[in-house]
User: Which sequence fits this backbone?
């Protein structure tokens, strides 16, 4: 698309004064990549650079505020939906799953579902409920086993892979905890930190637990 030369000159002029690419794109209706090409040789003075930095920081702040607002709106929606679901058709498996997570899982839903425990039965039960109540992408599981120096990483990896029914290739490098060697717990299989990298699922679990506890 051909643009008038006057538009290009005006764009360069404002860019010289410290206008951001986003501002210019919105002002003139031209994509940022084109404006970047037009203004690639622009040199800004100190005043223009200060203005540009202020605009960028303001934009970053607004973006962060909008992201937090969207996250809060999503969490509020899940909470209302969970309340209604519990009231009309309580899914006790989902409630039990959420309550186990409330007690033993990570409370920060920013990045992932995080569940850490050393009881194989509880870990197996949590995963059974989680898989039965939600649609999961199994490739997003990346567990880490926490072991002492007296453990065999290979043996414990086999053990926890069977407990969780998660492929050993998905486990990250084991974390070796310091141990004095004075106390060795018999039949202790180590601890597993389950990570499922989907923050939306974590928010749903927390919403169900909060809704149930609010009854």
Assistant:
């Amino acid at each position: 698309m051909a643009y008038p030369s006057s538009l290009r000159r005006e764009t360069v002029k404002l860019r010289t004064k410290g206008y951001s690419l986003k501002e210019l794109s919105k002002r003139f209706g031209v994509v940022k990549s084109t404006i970047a090409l037009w203004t690639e040789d622009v040199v800004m003075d100190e005043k223009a650079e200060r203005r540009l930095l202020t605009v960028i920081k303001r934009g970053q702040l607004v973006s962060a505020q909008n992201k937090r607002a969207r996250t809060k709106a999503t969490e509020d929606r899940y909470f209302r939906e969970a309340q209604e679901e519990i009231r009309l058709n309580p899914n006790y498996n989902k409630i039990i799953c959420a309550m186990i997570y409330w007690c033993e899982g990570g409370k920060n839903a920013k990045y992932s579902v995080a569940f850490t425990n050393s009881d194989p039965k509880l870990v197996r039960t949590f995963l059974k409920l989680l898989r039965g109540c939600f649609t999961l992408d199994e490739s997003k599981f990346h567990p880490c086993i926490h072991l002492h120096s007296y453990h065999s990483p290979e043996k414990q990896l086999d053990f926890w892979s069977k407990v969780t029914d998660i492929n050993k290739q998905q486990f990250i490098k084991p974390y070796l905890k310091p141990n004095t060697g004075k106390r060795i717990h018999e039949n202790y299989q180590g601890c597993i930190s389950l990570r499922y990298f989907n923050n939306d699922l974590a928010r749903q679990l927390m919403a169900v637990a909060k809704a149930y506890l609010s009854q």
